Amino acid sequence: MKGENLDNVQTLLSRLIESLPADAEALIKWVVEVRRKEEGEPSLSKEEKERLFLKENVLQQVRDTRLFAIVYDQQYANNSCCNCSSSSEEDSLTRIAAAVCCQGAAVLSGNLASRNGFCCKETCLKCVQANGDGLKTVISASVVSEGNEQGVDILLPMSSPGSSLCNSNLKKNAVKYPSSADVLTVLLLALHPNTWLGIKDEKLKAELQILVSIDNLPDDLKREIMHLRRQLYYLKACKEKEEDDGDDPPSPKYQC
């Protein structure tokens, strides 16, 4: 943040993204709903459609921000091969879906403590007609634990391609499902405002503060960002408490 050669937002964000830990994206997993697999062809209840609509709405609101376009451009610049990018996203989709299915199966079975003992046998992506609301994506999986197999479904949010893609790279490489660019954008929005105070260039600081400000975000996205910000505060307080005396972590209700 205090570097002398940070002369624009793109350079600053690129430097920041490069400095993140390798597993930083793991802080936020996809906001998906996991349920027990239904008999026959999957379908969505009214309540499930409403929850999925909210998730898709928030995802689209993230992508409507100028910050997302810049973050996406930074990632696209580092991987300009469209086919490689597409392949990477497909691999990521399969990998994350398998991990989420195992976690979901552990929760549904009431055996969360031993979720590492769950293994995803196979996954299958399906499109489900949601009674006049268009196609929705469901990932079905078979999960095995201690010789027992159970089926789970993931209700996967996706954005509406082309609804507000003002960026040429986004137009050419529209990503339907939550991506690493979404994760990084949300992380940047959730950082404490004081994070940017160390920037020496006042003009650059002001421009970045406008980019990451949540004041003018839509209400749904703003609520999600504030919730994540509280979680980050809590994690920081827990870490500091742990380093100080190893006592029990403070209760989340006392966090800002």
Protein model, in words:
The chain is of the alpha+beta class and 256 residues long. It has one domain. It has 8 helices and 4 strands. It has a 4-stranded antiparallel sheet. A hairpin with a 5-residue loop joins strand 2 and strand 3. Helix 3 crosses helix 6 (180-190) and helix 6 (180-190) packs across helix 8 (219-244). The chain is globular, with a radius of gyration of 20 Å. Mean pLDDT is 75; it is low at 80-87 and 162-174.
Question: Concise description?
Answer:
The chain has 256 residues and is an alpha+beta fold. It has helices at residues 9-19, 46-63, 66-78, 82-108, 168-172, 180-190, 202-212, 219-244; strands at 33-36, 119-129, 135-145, 148-156.
Key attributes of the depicted protein:
single chain; alpha+beta; globular
Largest sheet entry? 4 strands, antiparallel
How many E strands?
4
Order of helices and strands: HEHHHEEEHHHH
**Uncertain residue ranges:** 80-87, 162-174
- Fraction in helix: 40-55%
Q: Structural class given helices, strands, pairing?
A: alpha+beta
Q: Roughly what is the average pLDDT, rounded to an integer?
A: 75
Layout of secondary structure:
Elements: H1 9-19, E1 33-36, H2 46-63, H3 66-78, H4 82-108, E2 119-129, E3 135-145, E4 148-156, H5 168-172, H6 180-190, H7 202-212, H8 219-244
Helix pairs in contact: 3-6, 6-8
